[in-house]
């Protein structure tokens, strides 16, 4: 079956998914693994409506996303760099890790306070790759085959931008964009691309998936009412 065609789902299944999501908000992390197990195997995209434990919502722009494990995950770094590289999950885990605790804010309005993320600072990966003259931005691609994002080079070099491997003190699950995702702490969550597969240094910012549909390219939280883009502690 073509993935994009999905699988017919009845009304009872849809209501069951929404009920499971509501229960997840009530009981928190104890149901999170169950919700992730359901959403990671859902070919319909309907589980993107389910709120997960702690108030998260699950979003994908495709019907289903293939999983990646430590055995087959790869992150490609290329573009305007002196030393292109392909990193496995173990390579990323071996690098210095940074922990950031910050509110997650979705542009649609929901918020999850004081959420811990851990991973490798993007600035470290860019430094190791050697950014060339003429570079001004970084483009991110994802192994869902559809999503993409960009940051200016200055934004990408901030200390509160991570290539994240952990969230809420455990490895990133598939539904949260694992095993590796981008995390841009001071911006709305759509900038934190899930299922990260590529980091490409470019001469200019290229609008991401939602930005081509009208979202802000500079997605600072609170932009409409004043912002604080000082580095996150």
UniProtKB/TrEMBL annotation:
Residue span(s) of domain Oxidoreductase molybdopterin-binding: 64-210
One Pfam family from the record: Oxidored_molyb
Source organism of the structure: Kitasatospora arboriphila
Residue ranges crossing the lipid bilayer per the database entry: none
Protein name (Swiss-Prot/TrEMBL): Oxidoreductase molybdopterin-binding domain-containing protein
Top-rank lineage group of the source organism: Bacteria
InterPro entries: OxRdtase_Mopterin-bd_dom (IPR000572), OxRdtase_Mopterin-bd_sf (IPR036374), TAT_signal (IPR006311)
